[in-house]
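Annex B, item 7. Sequence and structure tokens for protein A, then protein B.
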Amino acid sequence: TDAEVSTRKKTFAEVQTERLDQAERTVLIKCPSKLNEKKLLQYLSSHGNVKSHFFFENRGISALIEFSEKSSIASLQDAVGIPGASEHHVVPFKSRLFTFTLKNPVSQHMEGTPLHLSPQCHIPVKDLIQKLCLADSISSQMYILLNEYQLTEENIKLRFLACSLVRDFTRAYFPDSTVKPFGSSVNTFGKLGSDVDMFLDFRDTGKHTTKMKKGPFEMEYQMKRLPSERLATQRILSVIGDCLDNFGPGCANVQKILNARCPLVKFSHQPTGFQCDLSVSNSIAIRSSELLYIYGCLDSRVRALVFTIRCWARVHGLTNSAPGTWITNFSLTMMVMFFLQKRSPPIIPTLDQLKELADEKDRHIIGGYDCSFVSDLRKIKPTKNTETLDVLLGEFFEYFGNFDFRKNSINLRKGKEVNKPESSPLYIWNPFEQDLNISKNVNQPQLEKFIAMARESAWILQKEDKTQQMINKEPWGLAALLIPFGKSNSSRMKNRMKGIGSETIRSLLDSLKLNNANSQQKAVGK
């Protein structure tokens, strides 16, 4: 593979470009249930060289087929028919999604070959715990968890294909537009089964600025003008949303959420099986994705620790897929990064250090915020820290179990605890928009639950007798942390909450009042 040829790690932009290009040469086929893989590939090869392919389960068997040349897709499309309108009438939009059925199933059905199916979701936690018990150290347990949960090569291809299929629609209106994934699909911290965040970008238009200098005229397009960028975004997304809803094969449950802080269209893309969120280009979100990509590539311990902490938080109900007063995965990830910056010696550099390494092409000023940092991983010196993940996991719980959240905030630019600028229970500086707190949503009871769980986990790791537990076939190490607490040791959990108490009760009451007030307001607003 290309990755093995080049020993240096690719930059974020290189990976994106390569993947988007790959997706443009890709089609998705719903296959007959009894399928002979060799016959399928033989037929497809008549349209051009098939560079890679895999099968997966999604309401039957599907195949993702990547051709070497884009022209092979046109050749295949020429051979494909439109479904007969027996009981339904079809919208005649020709996409890169096809259904193959056998012409003569009786004679062919004996030849079905067993297919290797690529899993598109991770194993349940109870199965994970059993695997973890067989490992020989906490460190290897954490790498097992990482391997079970992280995005596979196949899943990443499917994510980029979903974006590419949406882009086929946006290009009908905006021929230069691209649709790119951001967030967990590309930042190396994505988990199998997570949503695909994608954004619509018109920025590839910067290519012909040099040509404009020639000739005696200032020339520009006549374009519709609107009073604000927000309104333009809402209109564009509204039309694209309608388009997907009315014409998009396999696009279901399309919801337009245009009044959100960041307007978006949510839909489920059935052919790939993803829940998707489409918004219009948000440069700062892309910078955050790239920053995490860099941290994730620098040291293998970074991703292992993040995946572990996020799985732990989910098991104990500290995070939740619904929005609310819980800590988000993004906030947790930033807390792990901060902890790794604070190790001695540090395992990853601060954002200010990455900014010092930036050269001219890495300069990004977005909406007045300096979002510059180095993109070439070779310029970043590897860490001299050799701590094992066994140590780091225990230390993480110890550090945040005893962190002074009342007084201090978490600042990744400086890699330092800084006095809180305002009184939110948990204050994590947005790495780029320096006046925002990315964990503003978290309330006091949720923070205190996090602290209690961290203390309990640190305690379990310190007191445990691994050999004894392995002999007794009891879950040990990380496995012991992924079983909800409080079943056997509720009295101890009460002690962990000591000194945290009365405030929590007060703020719970306050939040009940707030919720009450909110629901009354909503009722009034209706």
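Protein B:
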Amino acid sequence: MALPDSVTTCLSQPVHYSICKLGFEETDTYDINNILSGNGEVCWQAVTEHVCYLESDQSVDYIRSIRSLGPVCESVHLYFKSLPKEQFVVQYASWFHWTNCTEVFLEVFDVVLQYTQATEVALGLMKLTSCLERALGDVYLLKGNDCPFLLRDLLASEQLADVFGQAVMNVLRVFIGSPHGLNLRNVLWHGFASPQEIPDKYCAMLLFLTAGLGQLLQAYLLQTKCVLVHRPYTIFISLEELDAFPLDNEILSVAEELVKQSSFVLKIMLPFWIAALTAFKQGRYADSVILLLPQLEVGLRLLFTTSNKCPNRLLTAESSALYTTFDEMLAKHLNNEEVNHLPIVLEEPAMASDFLWDFLNHQEGPRIRDRLSHGEINLETFPREIANQIVGFAITILCRFSDEDMFSLKEHMVIKPLVSCASCYRSRFHPISRLKKQVLECTKSIHLWPELPTVPEEQVQKIKGLEGNAEADTLILMISEIISQLQHYMPQNYYKSDDPINSVLTERLLVELCDTRICTLYSPRPVLEVVVVLRRISAQCHQVSQQVIAGAGLRYTQWVNKTLRSRQRHNYRRMLNSIKFLSPVLRLILLLITLELVSVHSVCKKNPFDYQQYLKFLKLVLQYTENLVTYTSPEKNKWDETMELTKRTLIKLRKISDRKLMLMHLAT
């Protein structure tokens, strides 16, 4: 697909005018002393006087306000450039403490002072706005409960107006938070502005305003005796799950050439790509990702608008419309219900879309763009593992939209492992993928049961009234029969056993089934509803396993130390007896879950009645596992009830199996 190579701006004409020209129309020199006291404090009244209002409804007149504030921004910019770094730190550093990101704001001052590259101004503004938004949210929580997710709602809130004053909030809304104003945060984070299109004086002004907010907040806290509490940052766990793309210096060197050749990169945005790769090589992982995410968005937007024949949507939307963002570009259909052609253009739609959904959208994924842009991540400790994957994915996209004939044989060999990994990518954070992970983790937990310390059988047998375990043997036989029936319904080429109760063989089967590739892209609602129930069942099974492990260990220690009373010894014997059938019954349920998952998309073919009957069956299993959690908890220890509950449930499962209503693919 041919992509346009003559794009000179991604800003619509009105937005370009507002950002690049409007604030420069008034050329009068503004005296910095009008808005700055002798000790460096912001004179807010003088600043707010430059915000203009419409006569009709007294709402902010953004056009006139931007024009009026232009000379003020220029004056602040020149003032900051005249300050030595040491003086700035002494005079202003304490006013940034309320943001919990003082170092970030001091770095932004370096950008204002030195101004070596235009990309640094954009990067500084993106970091500044995200940190400022997070800090304002912390202030909001002094007065409210649930902090608004969107910056524009935050700045329009009564809570912040009570702390800072409505006039001060209106000043901020001229620069960020309103689509009618400069809207610098959104224009940058969504990849619309090229490096040369963001005046550095706006970066200086927001730095100045942030210090001024710190001064106002300090006065408010002293007056109200309140304490500002900062919400904790998001901490990423299980980073090994994110390991998808191998990166080394050779690949990065090839990437530096790719960005100059790939049609995915708009020429006006090339400096951002180079800066992102440079930042990664320098170990500035947060900077690298902050620079790269908007470029991935604008590159995909270029593909989206070209493939769906809506070139006008490459530009920033006006205040009356929505931007074309990741959410829409990754959707199955356009707003007019027509098919979105972007996945087709990507050729590996599952790989590209699954990766983007994993890292940007899925609730249990890292949601990198949201968390970075809203200030939820500590920039100083940003994980290399996440940056590695974003950069690796970006390089694969560059390859896809580059002329292969321009690659040397060596470059082909260097990049080949990365491309191979991309083609094999499977979603890690879709609910279906998370269910597979849950099943395997629960299987590992149950695998530990045979290693649990137990009292020798001859000692246990001496407890009067508990001789024999015929009931447990009966339950195990029932489980074996049901698993044998299930084997007839398993997909072809999967392992089948003559010994269905064998734990090792069952675990092997579960691993094979969980390795089955299941479509996760654009899962229909019925599929997701079923997966939610299956995940709840799996979670309950895992909790039962953990409770059994903990309980068995505790009771064994008490037995050895002879601290169990007579009733507790009887209960311990019942526990040991129950463990014999609980292990296979949990593996049976995991097998059921996994078989249902493998054929989960067939649920869409069911008529409404059959679908409701199917959900009723799943909820029966869920109710059993929930009761099992209760009975096996350390507070209850109801092992006789556990046995009776299991017996009733197995009888129902066997009946359902006999009627062939248990597995979804039987209805297809």
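Comment on protein B: The first helix runs from residue 13 to 20.
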